[in-house]
Amino acid sequence: MGTLWGLLLELRGSLRTKKFWAIVVILAILYVPWIYILKRMAVGGEVLNQKVIISGLLSFAEGSGIIMLSILALLLGASAINSEIEKGTLKIVMSQPLRRIEYLLGKFLAHTVTIGIALGFSVLFLFVGFLYIGVPLSKGLVGDVLLLTILLLLTMVQLLAIGYLLSTLIRSPGTSLGLSLLVFFLIIFVIPGLVTFFAFTHSSSSSTNGKLVGPSQLENEYRTKYLFFDPIAQIKVTTSDMTKTIYVQKRITAVFNQSVSPVYVNGSVMGIPLKGEGTQHLVKPLNAKVLVKKVHYCSYSGESSSTYRNGLYFYNITECMPEEIYEGLLYSISVHKINVALLFAMTLIYFGAAVLLFQRKELR
Amino acid sequence: MMIRIERLTKTYKDVRALDNLTLTVERGSIYGFLGPNGAGKSTTIMSILGLVYPNSGSIVVRDVQVISNGKLLEGNLVEVKKFIGYMPENATLWDYLTPIQTLEEIGKAHKTPKEEVLSRGREILQRLDLWNVKNKKVGKFSKGMKQKLLLAQALVHDPELLILDEPMTGLDPAGIATFKDIIKEEQKRGKTIFFSSHILAHVEEVCDTVGVVVGGRLVKEGRIEDIKEEFLRKGGFVIFLETNKPINFENPPWDVKKVDEKRYVIRATTDIREDLNDIVWSQGAKILQLKVRVPSLEEIFLKMVKDE
After folding, report:
1. Which residues in B186-201 are b (16+ Cβ under 10 Å) and which e?
2. Which of A66, A261, B22, B114 to pair with A295, CA 20 to 30 A apart?
């Protein structure tokens, strides 16, 4: 009950302040540059499919977007409690019939809702932008954008919790705001930079289970292991595998009345029509069968054999190719469940620590 | 009784703010909690509300144990806070709310019906001269107006117990008079008022009981007349006497100090003007000047502080 009161009080308060509307405006124009880039790409003749849009959006959101979002969330949290102690409003609040934890939770949820509303505006503007440049809002696209927004919200909520921790730990709002900027630089630039550096220097020599590990894989591994406390590192890992590599084996058996050679169309023999020997013309087979099968791994890329019997040419062609399939964010999240779990768990830990500190705090 | 504080001790780092403080506030009384700045008044009040955590001691409010052996019982405190209106010292309310909105928020926290909040709020704001600014944001208020609104928010849910920390600082004389009227009326309606002040004049007219706290300890507690009387007995009257020739005070029962041959400062526990008159006349002298100063509570208070 006290939580709800605190939530509504803070929310009503937030909606009445200029700070909130400043956040809304900043987040609303968050994707505007990206829409502009997309428009230029469309003019340049690029096909704007879901993969192009989402991966571009992601690199934008995780680049300049997240810098803005992080600063906002940290600053919002870093003065949440100590400024209320300084102003004295917390004395009034805590003389109402409610528990301390109820109020802190309510306030935190209100800030979460505030950020959620602001992010909602940014998504709204993004969709308007899509319509403006003529990108159809397919189910997959909308789903990915919403998932990305939820991930961004989770990241911001964790940063908010870090801010809350600072604001219960440090008495002066000025100091905690300054410190939150330091935290920001550390978790956005300094520490991830170090981890990336080590991932790249170690990757050439490192291997696990006999399989060679590429630098980006090792980077993800290091980010999970050493940057578990850093929500931005976690969101980067979580969104790093939107495409899935599958291995497709195609087995073609075809019968011709003349000798032919296989034609690879776009790297595939799926074209079936095989070229007649010595001619440029395609020859239709008398009979052809194609078997497509997903396999675990390709140990070869292709082989073919032919036999001549009773005036007919029998061809057996087997091909195995890795294929990159765009699976979207949900797939990437399912691959990196641990990192999503880390996002939740660390938020709980940060907020829990803030609650413990607040519970013991003297509100003088 | 409404509030019972027993052996409350609180140390901030190495400063002892409260030292075995014990006091009782009776139901339906106006209790003036007096002491110089830094004596521990606010710490005591904030301990009752669970804002600071005492090291030891216990607090019972409305027969509910709030602090037991220095341990806060938060569940009990939440119950008790339903009946308390608290006005903190040096606090501001939400800048972005108007007085009406502020009172509505407090009403919501106490689950007071909205119509009640509005009618009572209107009455209080009118009395405190805030009705004409009821739709103005508090951020634009002057200090005095903010102070009045702080009082209003403590009253709006019609609490049984008012705990007011330095309620009169920052108020103009008219505001102080209104404040005194309001708390007297609240008392008539059966409420208990516990308020702190470092200015005795503020307390003198309204309080039934006074507790004087110095250095974290309650040095005096009782009816205001009793405290005044006790001090007078200790030597409260200061008399300045000037005569036309030297007077010989033979073993006087009072403390007589000579300023010069014909001028004296005499301290006594009672009004001794007649006695002095007799002595002067009996020695064939004349009184040129006689000044008597009855001490204000301020002085009584200062003396108590000094004694401590």
Report:
1. bbeeebbbbbbbbebe
2. A261
- Quick check: B88 and A94 CB within 8 A? no
Q: What is the pLDDT of residues B64-94, one digit of tens each?
A: 999 999 999 999 999 999 999 999 998 889 9
Residue written as tokens 């057996």? Answer: A316
One domain for residues A201 and A315: no
Is the pLDDT at A255 greater than 50? The verdict is yes
Q: What does the angle CA B282 – CA B283 – CA B285 come to, to the nearest 5 degrees?
A: 105
The pLDDT score that the predictor gives to residue A268 is 42
Identify any residues that bridge with A291 across adjacent strands, giving them in sequence order. A251
How do beta strands B64-68 and B56-61 pair? antiparallel
**What's the gap in Å between the CA of B94 and the closest CA on chain A?**
7
- Whether residue A295 lies inside any domain: the answer is yes
pLDDT for A204 equals 61
pLDDT at A274: 53
Classify residue A33: in a domain, yes or no.
yes
Q: Which of A9, A17, A362 sits opposite B51 (nearest CB)?
A: A362
Q: What is the pTM of this model?
A: 0.83
ipTM: 0.83
pLDDT of residue A276: 53
Q: Does the pLDDT at position A259 exceed 80? A: no
Residue B258, token pair as written in the block:
């000579």
- Cα A72 to its chain centre, rounded Å, is 19
Chain B residues with CB under 8 Å of A3 CB are none
Query: Which residue would you say has higher pLDDT here, A280 or A226?
Result: A226
Structure tokens at B229: 């009387």
Q: Over chain A, what is the mean pLDDT? A: 84
**Contact residues of B toward A, CB < 8 A:** 42, 46, 49-53, 74, 78-79, 81-82, 84, 86, 88, 90-94, 96-97, 105-106, 108-110, 150, 153
Q: Mark whether A177 and A136 lie in a shared domain.
A: yes
Cα end-to-end span (Å), chain B: 28
Pairs of residues, one from chain A and one from chain B, whose beta carbons lie less than 8 Å apart: 72
- Looking at the structure of chain A, the number of domains it has is 2
Same domain for A45 and A189 = yes
pLDDT score recorded for residue B145: 93
Residue A126, both tokens: 């993004």
Considering the domain architecture, whether residues A215 and A286 belong to the same structural domain is answered as: no
Same structural domain, A76 and A163 = yes
DSSP letters for B160-189: SEEEESSTTTT--HHHHHHHHHHHHHHHHT
Print the domain residue range for A18: 2-243+336-360
Any domain includes A331: no
CA B50 to chain A, closest CA, distance in angstroms equals: 8
Task: Determine, yes or no, domain membership for A117.
Answer: yes
Same domain, A274 and A343: no
pLDDT tens for each residue of B123-141:
999 999 999 999 999 999 9
**Residue B46: what pLDDT?**
96
Q: In this complex, do B53 and A95 lie within 8 Å of one another by their Cβ atoms?
A: no
Q: Are residues A220 and A270 in the same domain?
A: no
Question: What are A's interface residues with B at a Cβ cutoff of 8 A?
Answer: 2, 5, 8-9, 13, 16-17, 87-89, 91-92, 94-100, 360, 362-364
Q: What is the pLDDT of residue A266?
A: 39
